[in-house]
Design brief:
Layout (H helix, E strand, L loop, with lengths): L1 E5 L6 H15 L3 E6 L13 E5 L13 H15 L4 E5 L1 H17 L6 E5 L2 H4 L8 H10 L2 E4 L2 H10 L6 E3 L7 H4 L16 E6 L8 H14 L2 E6 L5 H11 L5 E5 L4 H6 L3 E4 L8 H8 L4 E4 L14 E4 L4 H12 L2 H15 L4 H22 L1
Helix pairs in contact: 2-3, 3-5, 8-9, 8-12, 11-13
The structure holds ligand GMT.
Ligand GMT binds next to α1 and α4.
Length: 379
Amino acid sequence: MKIAIVCYPTFGGSGVVATELGIALANRGHQVHFVTYRQPVRLELLSNNIFFHEVHVPEYPLFHYQPYELALSSKLVDTIKLHQIDLLHVHYAIPHAYAGYMAKKMLEEEGIYVPMITTLHGTDITLVGKHPFYKPAVTFSINQSDVVTSVSDSLKQGTLEIFDIHKEIEVIPNFIDSKKYSTSFTDCQRTNMADENERIITHISNFRKVKRIPDVIHVFHKIQQNIPSKLIMVGEGPEKEGAERLCETLGISNQVIFLGNSNEIDKILCFSDLFLLPSESESFGLAALEAMINKVPVISSNAGGIPEVNMHGVTGFLSEIGDIDDMVTNAIGILKDDSTLEQFKKNAVREAHKFDIAKVLPLYEEVYQRAYKSRLKNA
Ligand code: GMT
């Protein structure tokens, strides 16, 4: 099949999922065309069945806001016609489902019918999409999609509560390619990061408010009073500066390493003993799953879809949002001795395998087949 994928090309989870899905589809013999404003970060190599089409938005001084949706929908129309694309898969409703719908309509004028699959990822619904300024357009474009998928059951329920949706929402969870991790690094270069007697605790995110970065620091502050440890903070975002200042105030700057954005997440997770994810809201928590496949147990909040990934008492622990003391108690419970930590590590990787791409990819392919058949009906 020839599939056009629209996504954000940045470090965010939705872009990562879309890119990894595209790569996996290409490995299965499909032809995949990414349409976005920059080559996606995890898309290192293009090949004879992976293409990238850049959306350019020409600057014009009259416009206070440059019209990205317009440029994207035009690019979709051109790409779909030129490469005879069979279906369109848009990740993140805003503004991708809206631009995709416009492209569909323009193509229909020319007698071309392309089904559109919209995958909801989280903040497009829970944070941005529900804003009254966006809600009517988001509701409309979700309802106009041929198939709608959501990355967790929690996000599905949230979407149905917030919007007036009369389309079936199918849950297809996020995934991980466990084969990529079976050749795990044996030399984790742990000694570069911490002393031998120290535990390594990691947090990876886009450092937005929703991630509750101060909770990460406070939880670590209390853990290190009981257990010698280092904290590795990976990512960039608006809360980073405040986090650095908080570390100074608490006198723990020499134990916290800020690494910035990284393409070597698995190398970092390879030497980690614990992952912290105290988010306010999280539709799935792909970062937690990436930790788990790298044998790292997770201490998290119970927000949104996290309980569908992190199994309480098995792969880590869940706490109420903001319950720092409970997170500390749970973290110490895991880190206190090697045999307990080892058990949680084993559980984490075992549970992560349940989200292997080999199990999830067929669910997307089945959706594509169904949508493709509707294309034939409408042709
Ligand atoms: O977490 C973020 O702020 C990034 C956001 C995104 O749009 O990429 O992540 C969302 O999608 C991921 C992939 O489906 C999910 O794993 C994250 O849980 C979700 N984030 C939120 O719901 C806050």
